[in-house]
Fold this sequence. Notes:
The chain has a single domain (25-144), classed as Roll (Nuclear Transport Factor 2, Chain: A), CATH 3.10.450. Helix content is 38%, strand content 39%. Helix 1 packs antiparallel against helix 2. Strand 1 (61-66) and strand 2 form a beta hairpin. It has a 6-stranded mixed sheet. It is built from 3 helices and 6 strands.
Amino acid sequence: MNRRALASLVACGAALVATSAIAQPVNADEAAIRAVIETYFKGHATGDPAYFRAAFLPTAHIEGNRGGKFTSWTVDEYAAGFKGTPASDESSRSRTVDVIDVTGDSAMARATLDHGAAVFTDYFVLLKIDGGWKIANKVYSVRRKAG
């Protein structure tokens, strides 16, 4: 192998190592953000309001349009709507994290919640505070299924 080819291989290897080292914190942050959203999902799956309080900052708001009317809840108001029991159709519901975008200590995520007759798209704004991620606010859109 000539020196130029060897130098190119070394440079490519160094670039891969550098890229991997830079990307690693983002991957760890993405995993931590996903875990927070999974905690939020557990609130829906179990009906236990404690999961929502664990996932959100206490100052967070949940906002969207329901039946053509703007709604805005504090975390406590939102959590109060859950009584500690799963929905009767829980086994047929699904929830997925679609997108996570991280910049420093701020992030956004989009999730889809297929809840029987309705599909919710949730948009989360998250902050990393004291080394941990929390949902700072959520807006949502709801689409009723035909039928």
